Structures are given as structure tokens and as C-alpha cells.
Amino acid sequence: MTRRRKHWGWGFEDQQPPPGEVEATATAAREHLGFEPAPVERPVPLDDVTLPAPALDPPASLADICRTDPYERVTHSYGKSYRDVVRAFRGRFDNPPDVVAHPRDEAELERVLAWCEEAGAAAVPFGGGTSVVGGVEPPLGRAAVSIDLKRMDRVLEVDSESRAALIQAGAMGPLLEDQLRGHGLTLRHFPQSFEYSTLGGWIATRAGGHYATLHTHIDDFVESVRALTPRGVWESRRLPGSGAGPSPDRLLIGSEGILGVITQAWMRVQNAPRFRESAGLTFDSFEAGARAVRALSQSGLHPSNCRLLDGAEAALTGAAPDGRALLVLGFESADHALDPWMARALELCADHGGRARGGDDRSTRGEAESSWRDAFLQAPYLRDTLVAAGVFVETFESAVTWDRFDALVASVRERAREALGAGATVTCRLTHVYPDGAAPYFTVLAPARRGDELAQWDEVKAAASEAILGGGGTITHHHAVGRDHRPWYDRQRPDPFADALRAAKAAVDPAGILNPGVLV
Amino acid sequence: MTRRRKHWGWGFEDQQPPPGEVEATATAAREHLGFEPAPVERPVPLDDVTLPAPALDPPASLADICRTDPYERVTHSYGKSYRDVVRAFRGRFDNPPDVVAHPRDEAELERVLAWCEEAGAAAVPFGGGTSVVGGVEPPLGRAAVSIDLKRMDRVLEVDSESRAALIQAGAMGPLLEDQLRGHGLTLRHFPQSFEYSTLGGWIATRAGGHYATLHTHIDDFVESVRALTPRGVWESRRLPGSGAGPSPDRLLIGSEGILGVITQAWMRVQNAPRFRESAGLTFDSFEAGARAVRALSQSGLHPSNCRLLDGAEAALTGAAPDGRALLVLGFESADHALDPWMARALELCADHGGRARGGDDRSTRGEAESSWRDAFLQAPYLRDTLVAAGVFVETFESAVTWDRFDALVASVRERAREALGAGATVTCRLTHVYPDGAAPYFTVLAPARRGDELAQWDEVKAAASEAILGGGGTITHHHAVGRDHRPWYDRQRPDPFADALRAAKAAVDPAGILNPGVLV
Fold first, then answer.
1. Which of A71, A324, A342, A384 has a C-alpha 20 to 30 A away from that of A50?
2. Of B250, B344, B502, the CB nearest to A246
3. Residue B323 pLDDT
């Protein structure tokens, strides 16, 4: 219980490397990226942070689950986007929540919501706080209560016959998997934020997960959801499938806290895989690799992993230093050996010029996958050091149909490079693929304009987002909308749907307390 | 153009067998079912039907697409449920639409909707008119326009790269497939109503289709939808996947005409399958077969066909006369041979006592599948004769998690038999299966209480629906809600969702003209 999360970046306080090590890594990173040397900054300590006084006083009846101390307010001020980390690193917490509530059960949560409605305060649901789109940031100019769900973190029930589990919304990835493991089950939802994000957050934001095909979003694993709205409990029936009107679950999934606070969900879980096949294949170009991926995604083979990295991304993560595009391909099953699946997949790759790394030596096949996965999970930790190093680092992601894929990728690369200027690195990978398209994910790295990073971010974010929208993509495939994507989301969604969503929200949250400013 | 649909039953007028043949089939059917002989009735001819005068007069500007003649009004009065066929057979058309509009494009549809709003008339979208839940029946006590979409029946665009097609809502199954065939593509959505139902109807009702696993509903094939609402065009972006807020498509899918009139959709289509494996397996009991099906559905093998018939159903359809439960299992692929898939599936079946019919002789494997499919498509034609024969015939369907599966099936059987009395036959099959449950589909056959069939229907419908709801199932897996399922649907859905849906409807249809009485 003494272990605390860092107040400004990723992970726990005890995971922050000592200043000397940060300095060395920062210097090496700039050199590796071809940037001029620059001084390495240090984060503003929590003790030096000044916060506005809380505008709200929790009632005595909620005093034991409400906190107003600086650490709590600071760590619930932001998500974990680059903008968030930069602001937190510099000690800028201009608009923290007034109160942080930690309900232990639905009864307490209900009382917190009732108090918010009475006090006219915004209620901002907070899971792991790993939003990268401003989804958990309090609205400006309004008293706000951040409602942290992490005390509701239990797997309440397991139905092994139906392979489903009832899980509380505040359970973070590792804790949730630990509880399922005893039953031989696993949710197998592994977003990059896995260590620190929660089931409720995944559902509220339509998080993308482990499976590159078929079950790409958490949506596909939701059997039923339960949420508290200011006007009662919204709970669907546990059903394997239904055709009874528009799906109630699909309106809650992705609602980003504006319709209700998700408290628990029955999730479809998996038996732990016993059979695995994996391979690393290289291609002359990203475009050639994408054609192989398209063939794979339309083959009905359903690889669990099918992540294509462009040459720069493969080099950057150390997965393939030779500058060729790399496809990390994997199959897994709890039921059957997968040789025929992989054999056919390798044929399809070969048809499109894919060459197996390490030939047919199966023992080396898993290497690309595991080295890429390690880099993937380490990235948010490394980002903290990049901020100290004055390296601007951001990601953009979308999904687009195959007919528009090449053009969209080229356009985002070009517009992002234009916005960031010479010396910027823009890499691309595919995180998830579909028969009708793919989800490209861009990473941009550039020398930061120190002290002016937020303006720099505004510029490149607008440039990339315009390219995405203009190219026929979605403003987000799995990062959610939050506050940051609003301008483009508003243009993307059908107007009558926006009206319908506003009306739906007003029906269940007439006082408009739930996460105001997000989505509508 | 001279070929007309029957005004009271399934198929075309020229498909109605002559009276002597109906008489013979009807007599044989009653005998086969063990019912006492009974006189065979004849349908009331259209000329003998009396209709109330139309309460509405279409404006001159819409005169060329509006019809008020008896044939049009009669054939748009009902769907094709047993209740509908009985009423139509007896010449009872108490509440026909006043006008039937046949818009040829969106501009005409928009004008029809504007006129309905102005005239305060209900606008009832009508695709193929095959609803079995009262989904296309005009509301009582209100002028109504039935809007028939069948003139909008074109495949407008094909994107072979993304394997997607833009299809107008009024395209019926065979016409739609004909148009796709030239591109080597197929939607492969084959509900029992395939010959006469439309894409727009499938989407509006979340129709269940060809695939027994994985892509069970039309929902899974929708890439984007376009609908006209009284407050503008609701059109989503073509996207292979997205995480931008709650899915706009998922609110339209299943909306049964209350939010807008679906005019076209980009659909994910398939390459035509080149490889097929199929097998018929028998089990000692339906419950043993269900355990095999559960293992298959959780295996990740994703059979395209996995239909389990109980002994009575297998005998009734001629698929397996020996009284054992029959599993019709199939795999299909456009990409790869399926021997390893089928081999593993047969192992799983054997683990649960499944015995291959015809041993390992592959040439006979497809027989069960094709004889079952023929019976499946012929059933609605046969039903017309059963009505003439005084045989009560109805189906109930649901979906339920595996932990509650056996109990729900037993309870529906028992309650339906109780309601129908001695001599009733209740059969069950699984139409679609999931890792977490299955969709049981019940057929009931009993001597009809002649002249009192609607009351008989009310009793058995209530009994079966209570058993379904009480057993933890959904009131409909793929027949939609319409008017018939409202009492149970209202209890099934979360109350705040009902409020949200009502508010959403009011936002896009403030005058409440769209399919009033359905869903909300």
C-alpha cells in the first residue's frame, strides 16, 4: 500500500530511474534519433505544485471515501497523453478535480452521483487514468468530482460452462487476469496500457486489445454491462446473442462516461491457449506487406497476431534492424495444433513477397514477436524519459478501408512531417486488420519546442487529424474521443446520431453531470 | 410483371398448388402428425375482401408512386406470421394501410416522409413484408402509409479490394446475390425468408443468416448504413472498425423503422466459397448433441454450419428418420482446404458421443445438409397448406447462455405443450451457436382451434415467452420485436435504455411518424 503511482508519468514512483540514468538514456535517445544534444529536464516535484483550493466539500456521509489532498487531486487531473505528461512534468495542474471519490460498492457510487447532482458538480468516471485523449480531465469552469473505480476490482463470479466471468469495472489488467487464472481462464485483452487500465475504462472507450483480427475491440467480449445512471441502473441481460431491438450494450460501449458509470460486466473469457505458432516475415515495403496482410485478413484464417511494422518502426523498436517491413504473425488456440493455419498463412505471405526471418527454423519464430511485445509495453515508460529529453513523441491511429489505405497512410505521414519539420521521424504499423480494411498506427518523434510543446502538439494533431478525416478514416480506432478528438469526431458522426445521443444522455442524465464536454 | 405475390400467404400466386393437391397434402400432413381428420378450408379470394375506405389521399405530386387499390393495401397489411396468414386466409383485413408508396429514390422517399409528417400519418417502412412479429402492420386508429422500398434494389458500387458493396435497401435476397455474382462476390446472408426479404429489412430487424457461428447476424456484415430520418440523413462513414463513441450503426441496426428508413448500406461481402466440408452426426439425445456443439463453438474452429436438430425435428424434416438428434456440420472457405478443421470437429463430436452418418464416406456427408436446407426453405410454403388443414404451426426462438440452456429448452417445451394440449408436437433445433451459449428454435404443431386460432396463438405465445424470459433468454434472437414481442421486450431491456431510445427517437422523429408502436 506504500507503493504509489508517479504523479506525472507512467508507472510507480519506485520505477522512475535515477536522474543519472534518465540523463544517459535521454542523451542516447536524442542521438539515436539524429537530434542535436539538449539539456535534460527534471520533473517538478509534487511538493512544488500549487493547486487551486477545492471548490467543493464532500458531505460528512461521504467523507471516508472522498479525498482532497494534493496527490489525489494531481493524479486525477489528467490522463496519460503526451500533453498530459508534459503538463504534469512541468507541474502545471490548473484544473484539478475538487474531490476524488473512491466508492467501494454501487451503493456508495450511487450516493456520490446523487451528491454531484445536488451540488451541480461534474462527475468524471476514472478507471486507470490512462486516457490519451483527455477523457478523464475535469471540464473547465465547473466543480468536479473524479470518481475512481479502482476499489471495485473483483471477479465476482465465473461461469465455466459458458466461459464467462462477472468482473467489476475497476479491476486493472493484471489483477483481473490473476483472478481468472485460477479458473484456467483469461480475458486476453492486452492493450498497451494493460498494467494500469481497467475493465470499465476499456468498455467505456472501446479499447483495442490483443487480437489483431476478429475480436479486435473489447466490444466483442462484452456479454452484458451494468452501469449506474443518475436515473437508475442500466443493466442488460446476459445473452450470447440477441436481436431484440438495437443493442443496449452497444450504446453503453464507447459512451466514455456520459451515459452512466459502468460498475461491472459479464465478459466472454477464453481458455488459456495451449497451442501457438508464430513467425516473423519481412517485405520489401510496407505497402507490399499490407497486401499480404489484406490477403490474410480475407482468408478466414484469423491470426491472433498480425502486426505489420514499417521499416522505421521495426528498426526503432529493435524488432528488425535491416530497414525492411516486418510482419509479426501469430496463431493461438486452446483446442488444436495450428500447423495447417500457419502453413497456409505463410503461403499467402510468400505470394506477396514475404520472406520468413530465420527461414523455417521454428525455434526462432517467436523472437520477433517477443522483442516487439517488450518494446510495446516499455514504450510508455520510455516516453517519460523522452519528455525529459525534449523529444516530442505522439501517436495517431485510425482505421480505413483497403481501397483508401495507401493514400491515407501516405497523407498522414506527409502532413505530420510537414507539421513537425525536418528531422521528424514518422513511423507506421498496423495494429488490427479486417477483411475490409486496417488500422494504421503512427508514431511521430521530433525535437520538442521546449516550453511550447502544447502548441506544437496542436499543430501536428490538427495536421494528422485532417489527413485522417480527409482520407476517409475514423478519428480513432481504439483511443476513444475524449476532449482531444471532439472537433473531428463531430464532423465524422452522422448529425442525426449526434442529436439522438444528446437526447439519450439527457434522458438518463438530465442534470448533465456525467463527464460533460466528452462526446457531446 | 404479371407475376404477383399471393395476397394471403407465401410465394407467388402461380406457386399456390391447386385445391386438389392442397387437399391431399393437408390430409396427409394431419395424418403424419397424428391429428384427427378435418375438413380442408380454402382462402377467401381477394375479390371477396372488404376494406375500409382509405383515410388518406396522396397529394398529386406523389400520385405516380402511391397506390390505394385493394391488392396493394391487402398485401401491405400484414407480415407473414402464422397470425398474419390465418387472418389473411380468412379475408380479415381490418386495418390495412391507407396508401402504399413505392419511392424509386431517396428524393421521393423524402417527399413521402414529409407528406406523412404533414398529414400526421404513420409511416411504416416495408421491405419484403416477411416480418413474423407484426413489424410492418399499421398502428390501430391512425392513418398510415406503407412505404415499400422494393424499387430501390440495386447494387450501386462494388469495392473488390475491400470486399464490400453498396447495396440499396429494397434489394431482395436473390436479386442482390445475382448482382454480386458477376463480381465473384456473395453476401451469404440466407435467412429462411431469403427469397422475399430485403437488405433493409434484414438490417432493421437484425436478421440471422447463413453462418451458424461467428457472423450470426446481419449486424456483422454492415460496414456503414444510410437512413433517412424526418430530421435529415443519418449516414455513417465506411469503416472496417472504429472506436469513436458508441457505434452509430449499432443504434440503427435493429431499430425496426422507428429511427429512420434505411435506404442503402455498404456491406462486407465474401468471395464465393471454393472449399466445403460437411458432415451429419447423430447423438443419443439433444442434450448430448448440445454438449458437442458447445465444445465446437468454444474451439475456435468456426464452422459455417452447426445446426443441431432434436429427434422430432430431424424426423419431421426427413433429415434423420431414426429419432436420434442430428448435427448438420459444415465448413466453407474461399481460401483453403478444410480437412484439418473438419477432422478436429469430428474428434470433438466423437468426444461427446457423436456418430458420423454414413461413416467416413465423404460423398454422403452433404446429404443431411441439403435435405435439411430444402425442408428449411419449403417450410413457409408448406405452412400455407397447414393453415388450410387446420394445423396450428408456430415457431419460438431465443438465445441463452450455456449454463441455463438445458433448463430453458425443457421449460419452453413443457409450457408450450401445456398450452397446446395433448397431441401437440414441440420440436427444437439450434440455429446459431456461440462460445457462451446457443440460439434454440422451437416449432410447435397442434390441431388448430378453428376460428379461434388467434386466441390459441395468444395462449401458447404467452406461455412460451414467459418460459423464455423466465429462463434467462432473449425474447428474440433474430425474429425482431415488432408488436408481438413488445410485452416481453419491455421487461427484458434496461429501463434507462428504454428512456434513452425513446428520447433518441423523439430527437430524429419529433412528430412520431415512424412505425409507431414498434419497440417504443
1. A384
2. B250
3. 86
Which residues have a Cβ under 8 Å from the Cβ of B340 and sit 6 or more positions away? A336, A340
Query: pLDDT tens digit string along B204-227?
Result: 999 999 899 999 999 999 999 999
Statement: residue A363 has pLDDT above 70: no
Residues 427-486 of chain A whose Cβ lies under 8 A from any Cβ of chain B: 432, 434-439, 472-481, 485
Reference A504, options A239, A231, A201; nearest CA is: A231
pLDDT in tens, A23-41: 999 999 999 999 999 999 9
Chain A (133-172) residues lying within 8 Å, Cβ to Cβ, of chain B = 159, 161-164
pLDDT value at A295 more than 50: yes
Judging by beta carbons within 10 Å of its beta carbon (0-12, 13-18, 19+), is residue B296 exposed, middle or buried? Answer: buried
pLDDT digits (tens, 9 = 90+) for B10-30: 999 999 999 999 999 999 999
- The closest of A471, A510, A446, A498 to A82, measured between CA atoms, is A446
Nearest one of A157, A153, A165 to A105, comparing CA atoms: A153
> Which residues of A fall within a CB distance of 8 Å from B205?
243
Could you tell me which of B169, B145, B256 has the C-alpha nearest to residue B519? B256
Q: Which residue of A has its CA nearest to B489?
A: A244
SS3 content of chain A, % helix, strand, coil (to 5): 40, 20, 40
Do B247 and A254 make contact, defined as CB atoms within 8 angstroms?
yes
Containing A407, the helix (H) or strand (E) segment is helix A405-420
Q: Which of A113, A162, A235 to mutate to test the interface with B (most CBs of B within 10 A)?
A: A162
What is the reported pLDDT for B375? 79
Task: Report the pLDDT value the prediction gives residue A317, as an integer from 0 to 100.
Answer: 77
What are the tens digits of pLDDT across the range B181-203? 999 999 999 999 999 999 999 99
Measured between CB atoms, which of A254, A299, A399 is closest to B336? A299
A243-252, A350-359, B150-159: lowest mean pLDDT where? A350-359
Does B302 contact chain A (CB < 8 Å)? yes
**ipTM for this prediction:** 0.96
Task: Give which of A216, A237, A344 to mutate to test B binding, by max B Cβ within 10 Å.
Answer: A237
Decide if A234 contacts B497 (C-beta within 8 A): yes
3-state helix vs strand vs coil in chain B, percent to 5: 40, 20, 40
Question: If you average pLDDT over every residue of chain B, what do you get?
Answer: 95
Helices (H), B421-494: 453-470, 486-492
CA dist list (Å): A31 to A17, A24, A456, B275:
19, 11, 21, 54
From the list B235, B300, B495, the residue facing A335 with the nearest CB is B300
pLDDT at A321: 72
- Whether the CA torsion A87, A88, A94, A99 is positive or negative: it is positive
Chain B interface includes A211 (CB < 8 A): no
From A161, A248, A333, residue closest to B300, measured CB to CB: A333
Task: Show Cβ contacts of residue A454 under 8 Å, excluding neighbours closer than 6 positions.
Answer: A83, A86, A87
CA angle A212, B251, B126 (to 5 degrees): 120
Residue B467 to residue B483: CA distance in whole angstroms:
19
What is the pTM assigned to this prediction?
A: 0.97
pLDDT tens-digit map of B289-320: 999 999 999 999 999 999 999 999 988 877 77
Average pLDDT over residues B137-165: 98
Q: Is B406 buried (19+), middle (13-18) or exposed (0-12) by CB count in 10 A?
A: middle
Quick check: A436 and B503 CB within 8 A?
Answer: no
CA B81 – CA B136 distance, rounded (Å)? 11
Nearest by Cα to A247 from B512, B43, B256: B256
Is A401 within 8 Å of B507 when comparing Cβ atoms?
A: no
pLDDT of residue B317: 77
Q: Is A506 near chain B, with CB under 8 Å?
A: yes
Report pLDDT for B360.
45
